[in-house]
Specification:
By secondary structure, the protein is of the alpha/beta class. The chain has helices spanning about 15-20, 35-40, 50-55, 70-75, 80-85, 100-110, 125-130, 140-150, 165-195, 200-205, 215, 240-260, 265-280, 290-295, and strands at about 5, 25-30, 45, 60-65, 90-95, 115-120, 120, 135-140, 155-160. A six-stranded parallel β-sheet has the order 3-2-1-4-5-6, sandwiched between helices. The chain is globular, with a radius of gyration of 20 Å.
Length: about 300
């Protein structure tokens, strides 16, 4: 079993770290929040006093942080990961950040002789708790093979997407699809309501027809149809609207940098920006159906 430093014990990071503990690994974690540190300790982990302490002696370091600047600071700052890690430490960043930051930090790690992967996840807090996340991994094949047994303790699907930054590229492309498709499904259910078509009837037809997609069959925004959907819990977040907006903005930034046309992605960003601005940023992203409906 490995000694793992885990930095960032939020809604996603904490259950991921707890699954590593359940698998028998030693986890020494750090977070700016005391409650998160206490929860890790209560689960059998070590509450480290700093980033440096979390990294000290670790064979693997995993980070789960809010944004690109946090990742840059934690890795390259004074007493950061790169200054504290041993020569054979494997670095895995599971944050969802911009491709440029992921590649810049990976290059800084390479200069230190350290192997690094960007490995953002899909699956939300439910997947983090159940250990069924999907990891989209960018970096060398050798580093990926080293990381895979660790990632398999936190996720069900582990995919090597290519070189450094490609994990982030896969994540933002995937979530652009998700954001667009959730809006499309929501608009269809709202239109069905106005046309007098029962929501269950629309689901029974479209879920078995060409309109079928994950946003409908697994995460249906109309309540009372898919039991596991947040729609049945007043859209209590599994993946917040604010986080979806963040990912859509990352996708648009990447599209501009790559000179790619993503008109629907831009529209989705605009709709989610308005939804978040209405005060619903902490609500599940599927709650956008209420914004589309008008209340």
């Amino acid at each position: 079993m490995a000694t793992i430093g885990f930095i960032g014990l939020g809604n996603m990071g904490l259950p991921m770290a707890q699954n590593l503990l359940k698998a028998g690994h030693q986890v020494q974690g750090f977070d700016v929040g005391k409650a998160q540190m206490d929860a890790l300790a209560a689960s059998g982990g070590v509450a480290a006093a700093s980033v440096k302490a979390a990294v000290s002696g670790a064979e693997v370091v995993i980070t789960m942080l809010p944004a690109g600047q946090h990742v840059r600071d934690v890795y390259t700052g004074a007493d950061g990961v790169l200054s504290a890690a041993g020569g054979n430490t494997l670095l895995i960043d599971s944050s969802t950040i911009d491709v440029e930051s992921a590649r810049a930090v990976a290059a800084a790690a390479e200069k230190k002789g350290l192997a690094m992967l960007d490995a953002p996840v899909s699956g939300g807090t439910g997947g983090a708790q159940a250990g069924t996340l999907t990891f989209m991994v960018g970096g060398s094949h050798v580093a990926f093979e080293r990381a895979k047994p660790i990632l398999e303790k936190m996720g069900k699907t582990i995919v090597h997407a290519g070189g450094a930054g490609n994990g982030q590229a896969a994540k933002i492309c995937n979530n652009m699809i998700l954001g667009i498709s959730m809006i499309a499904v929501s608009e269809a259910f709202v239109l069905a309501e106005k046309l007098g078509l029962d929501a269950q009837k629309l689901f029974d037809i479209s879920s078995k027809s060409s309109g079928q997609c994950w946003s409908m069959t697994t995460y249906c925004p109309a309540p009372g149809i898919v039991p596991s959907s947040p729609a049945n819990r007043d859209y209590k977040a599994g993946f917040t609207a604010a986080m979806m907006l963040k990912d859509l903005k990352l996708a648009q930034d990447a599209a501009k940098a790559a000179h790619a046309k993503t008109a629907l992605g831009a529209d989705a960003e605009s709709i989610y920006a308005s939804y978040v601005d209405s005060g619903e940023g902490a609500r599940d992203f599927s709650g956008v159906i209420r914004f589309i409906r008008g209340g």
